Amino acid sequence: MNRKLGFCSAILVGITTMLFAISMLIGNLSLAYFVCMILSWGYILLTCAFYTETINDRKSVALGGVAFGCIYGVFINVVYFTQLTTVANKTAPENAIQLLSYQSLGSLFFNYDLFGYGMMALSTFLVGISIITKSKNDKWLKSLLMIHGVFLISCIGMPILNVFNNSENSTSAGTIALLIWCIYFIPIAIFSAIHFRKEI
């Protein structure tokens, strides 16, 4: 069951990441928000699957990956559920909407979103450390997960340094950055699916 969960959650992560990229290309933000919520659920389940197969000496590191993955999930779901409800339906005062809107660069929820993805990056780094490589596929997976941890620096640093304030081209640059992230993350889902598929 653990390995089947790992395989299915990896497929879910891969599909939702591809759908997120498509939604960004066609400019459907509601779809992007909804898909990212499901992506976070799949990712948390994936980290749990990796935890179950970790050797005792690395279980604390893998559990840390699960914990930071859950933090990522909480922040992302709060941000995107708010976009799909309160912000979309405008059921709050205008000044509150500006605070809650992900589309307002540098807003509270925009920064929460980046923080959430920073926690995901830390999670992938810890999960990567915990993986015991048994094949070339596993080595690629381990490397991709650990390198993804570098995103923690930018996701935490940019909001603190107020990089997005008064930046006219942030929207287009942000879309390009997200598409690059999708291109990077899809192979992680593929290698994860292969990892668990061979063990089923």
What is this entry, summarized?
Helix content is 80%, strand content 0%. The chain has 200 residues and is an all-alpha fold. It has one domain.
Q: Which features does this protein show?
A:
8 helices, mainly alpha, 0% strand, 200 residues, elongated
Count of DSSP strands: 0
For the largest beta-sheet, the strand count, sense and barrel status come to: none
Given the C-alpha coordinates, what overall shape results? elongated
Number of helices: 8
Beta-strand content estimate: under 5%
Total number of distinct structural domains: 1
Cα end-to-end separation: 9 Å
Helix and strand content put the structural class at mainly alpha
Describe this structure in words.
- The structure is a single chain.
- By secondary structure, the chain is mostly helical.
- It has one domain (2-197).
- 80% of the residues lie in helices and 0% in strands.
- It has eight helices and no strands.
- The longest helix has 31 residues, at 59-89.
Q: How would you summarize the topology of this molecule?
A:
Blueprint: H1 2-26, H2 29-52, H3 59-89, H4 94-100, H5 108-130, H6 136-148, H7 151-160, H8 170-197
